[in-house]
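Ticket #4471: structure export looks truncated?
Reporter: QA, pipeline team
Priority: medium

Steps to reproduce: submit the single chain below to the structure queue and open the exported record.
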Amino acid sequence: MRRGFVLVEVSVTYIILSLALVALVPAFILAIRAAKNNEQIAAAAQLSAELIEEVRMRKWDQSTPLPSAHIAAGSALGTDTGETASDKRTFNDIDDFNGWAESPPKDPVMNALTDFPAYSRSVTVKYVDANLAASAAVTDYKQVTVCTRTIKLKPLCLNAIFTNR
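Actual output as written to the record:
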């Protein structure tokens, strides 16, 4: 008589475990998708930060002397004479990056970052005033925005303010 109860108990246990596992499968799938999304966000943030650091290595303006010092007036945004808009190796100041776009992302010497073929990056540079409001006039502050995009992810954008020193 005891053997029959054990068989029934084991069968009921298997049924309960099966139902629990079936109920948990969607949670596992959701966790896997969230992990992949977080990985893409982290990669996009790192790619944006890397390009901002690349911009930071340049002079504030075309007429900024070396070593850096405050200059009386900045210049128009964008590439200058002798610089190639399609080759960031020729950029010597921050605003040369205005309008820059790359897909896939490239390192500072224009080699494609092969681990990120589905990503693209773009840069905008604008003058802002002391309150960080966009300014049509030349000011002592430039705002650099780097946006990184990939499939199924909203653009991830980082901003940095550079000053005329």
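Status: closed, not a bug. The export was complete when the record was re-opened. Leaving a note from the reviewer for reference: The chain has a mean pLDDT of 91.
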